């Protein structure tokens, strides 16, 4: 009699948990960035960029989209990286820093730029640790 390990079932379960966690983190980050934008706007920070207003919901939509791209990256790293957690954290920190560059050069006031950068950092602070915890060290 021999025992076999069903690696496919274990991988599916791990990837499923990763995706569930990532989606929940994306929802939380989207809500958080909309709150940050709304509070900033209520405090008098303009949400205008290039002469056009950024809707508060736009913060949530873009946060969700890019967060879900991050979840896909994490799922791929689970399959292809030797150290998925380490690779994911390093990659997403670099991408977060790079995401600040357009905010710095945007056609917007200093307060608006700061608010945009804050929303990026808030989203990263929510999504990166949540997803990283689901990845193998």
Automatic annotation (TrEMBL):
Bilayer-crossing residues are 23-44, 56-76, 88-108, 114-132
Q: Name one Pfam family in it.
A: DUF6069
Q: Does the keyword Ion transport apply?
A: no
User: Which keywords describe this protein according to UniProt?
Assistant: Membrane, Transmembrane, Transmembrane helix
Q: What is this protein called?
A: Cell envelope biogenesis protein OmpA
Origin species:
Micromonospora cremea
């Amino acid at each position: 009699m021999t025992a076999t390990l069903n690696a496919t079932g274990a991988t599916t379960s791990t990837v499923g948990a990763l995706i569930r966690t990532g989606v929940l983190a994306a929802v939380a980050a989207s809500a958080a960035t909309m709150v940050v934008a709304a509070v900033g706007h209520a405090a008098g920070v303009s949400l205008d960029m290039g002469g056009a207003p950024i809707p508060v919901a736009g913060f949530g939509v873009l946060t969700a989209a890019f967060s879900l791209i991050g979840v896909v990256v994490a799922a791929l790293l689970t399959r292809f990286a030797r150290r998925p957690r380490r690779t994911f954290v390093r990659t997403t920190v670099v991408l977060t820093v790079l995401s600040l560059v357009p905010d710095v050069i945007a056609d917007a006031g200093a307060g608006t730029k700061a608010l945009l950068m804050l929303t990026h950092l808030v989203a990263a602070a929510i999504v990166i640790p949540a997803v990283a915890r689901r990845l193998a060290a």
